[in-house]
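ok new one. same drill as before - structure tokens go in, u give me an amino acid for every spot. 519 of them this time. try not to just spam alanines like last time pls lmao
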């Protein structure tokens, strides 16, 4: 009886159950699929961004052995979703992942396309058109099997720093174990508006997700790397120092870094308690991890504790459908899907490739946060518990109605799109811009306050699985009719002043402007 009582105490406490929004499946004109066999068992994501300045979010979907494809959003705001495929210059084959970023600071989003083969950077020309820019920008795309990406702007730089993660030596298809190939760091060539030759990040352990993050509230990004233990020998999860003007170096056990070995597939970041020190969700086969700093503070060391079980987010086996074997998690993303002011978590699921010890029918997770900080599974109730083989995904407001919709890219199956029909509460969107090369303010921190409730988001590019979203940052506000917002801009030591913004709109905050502007 004593053991039973202790076990019950350890389980997440039930709080008031969150409102479950209804997601309605819509083909929306999209016919893309991520196809292929061994070299496409990983990857397969989607980039969501506005490629033509009409304030509608468009998509580029990685195709694997099929060409990548651009889907222009031509739906009516607030109505059913619809996209049209247009020829845009992105129709490369072998694409495993694609991320949007404004590399050259011209205000038009560019693309980084990771491939089985040469990686390619694409310059945005406006009007959803792109052209290859490897030669113009000094980007050496190699000839590997690239699977992870992140980007940041280092202090004082006029060009971004990119990190590209590679997987295994694809020529070793019969004996791939221990054949992890080098990840690379692409730093700017000083004063040249192009990339210097890439630096290998040794050792490398078959990366599947990367994220530049200000994990210790220092104002400077470090690089987290999540690695697939299936193929490395002697590897682990990694955290890299990125000191200005110095070669990258790993955090060591002497600095507090603890060895963790998982089938690392995706990274999602959220500051769940708004204390300035983000939590990290790491997808894996079987149980996923939710890491929080053991001792947050100005002198924090990278010592993390796993709170996935007590928060109810291990997502370790299917919750519906009858298959009781362990799950396989891929893309993860924190967002507020019901706008109650509490960050929720989506995880795309799918077997790697007929692995018999893991679930074949493995539904996506939609974990809604309760007021006490625990999470409740709602994927089946919300309508997103697909049994297709998920890989990349994106939560984004595709029809501009203030409710986040969902796209999932499936391996050897059709991409799926769901429209969030609510019910949802009030919301606000924050679209940051600043003069100079870092137009999208990567590395900025946005704080939103409603009464005594505080939310905090860092603007990042990377993480997830095979793609990401570059769009106004979405905050749910509950029943509040307005919110106070302030921004800590990249390179600034202190946040700006609080400003009051009305709910129900996207607001552009320009560092050089006198006041925010409603879009």
């Amino acid at each position: 009886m004593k053991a039973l009582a202790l076990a019950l105490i350890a389980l997440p406490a039930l709080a008031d159950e969150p409102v479950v929004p209804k997601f309605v499946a819509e083909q929306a004109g999209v016919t893309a699929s991520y196809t292929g066999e061994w070299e496409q068992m990983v990857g397969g994501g989607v980039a969501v961004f506005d490629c033509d300045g009409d304030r509608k979010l468009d998509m580029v979907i990685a195709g694997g052995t099929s060409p990548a494809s651009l889907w222009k959003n031509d739906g009516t705001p607030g109505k059913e979703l619809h996209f049209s495929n247009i020829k845009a210059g992105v129709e490369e084959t072998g694409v495993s992942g694609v991320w949007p970023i404004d590399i050259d600071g011209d205000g038009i989003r560019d693309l980084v396309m990771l491939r089985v083969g040469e990686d390619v950077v694409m310059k945005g020309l406006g009007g959803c058109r792109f052209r290859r820019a490897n030669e113009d920008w000094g980007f050496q795309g190699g000839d590997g099997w690239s699977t992870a990406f992140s980007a940041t702007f280092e202090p004082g730089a006029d060009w971004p720093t990119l990190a590209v993660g590679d997987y295994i030596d694809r020529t070793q298809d019969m004996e791939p174990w221990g054949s992890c190939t080098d990840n690379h760091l692409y730093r700017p060539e000083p004063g040249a508006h192009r990339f210097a030759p890439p630096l290998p990040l040794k050792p490398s352990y078959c990366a599947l997700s990367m994220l530049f993050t200000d994990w210790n509230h220092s104002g400077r990004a470090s690089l987290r790397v999540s690695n697939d233990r299936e193929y490395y020998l002697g590897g682990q999860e990694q955290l890299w120092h990125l000191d200005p003007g110095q070669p990258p170096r790993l955090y060591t056990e002497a600095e507090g870094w603890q060895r963790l070995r998982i089938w690392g597939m995706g990274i999602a970041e959220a500051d769940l308690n708004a204390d300035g020190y983000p939590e990290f969700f790491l997808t894996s086969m079987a149980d996923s991890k939710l890491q929080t700093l053991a001792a947050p503070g100005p002198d924090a060391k990278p010592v993390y504790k796993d709170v996935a079980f007590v928060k109810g987010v291990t997502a370790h086996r299917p919750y519906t459908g009858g298959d009781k074997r362990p799950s396989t998690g891929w893309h993860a993303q924190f967002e507020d899907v019901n706008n109650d002011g509490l960050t929720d978590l989506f995880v795309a699921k799918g077997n790697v490739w007929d692995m018999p010890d893991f679930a074949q029918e493995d539904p996506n997770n939609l974990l809604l946060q309760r007021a006490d900080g625990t999470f409740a599974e709602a994927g089946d109730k919300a309508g997103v518990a697909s049994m297709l083989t998920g890989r990349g995904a994106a939560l984004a407001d595709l029809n501009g109605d203030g409710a986040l919709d969902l796209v999932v890219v499936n391996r050897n199956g059709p991409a799926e799109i769901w429209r969030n029909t609510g019910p949802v509460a009030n919301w606000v969107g924050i679209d940051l811009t600043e003069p100079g090369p870092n137009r999208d303010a990567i590395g900025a921190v946005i704080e939103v306050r409603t009464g005594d409730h505080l939310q905090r988001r860092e603007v990042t590019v990377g993480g997830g699985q095979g793609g990401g979203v570059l769009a106004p940052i979405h905050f749910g506000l509950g029943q509040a009719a307005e919110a106070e917002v302030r921004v800590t801009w990249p390179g600034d030591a202190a946040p700006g002043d609080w400003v009051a913004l009305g709910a129900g709109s996207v607001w552009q905050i320009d560092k050089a402007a006198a006041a925010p502007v409603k879009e």
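The first strand starts at residue 23 and ends at 25. and btw The chain is about 5% helix and 35% strand.
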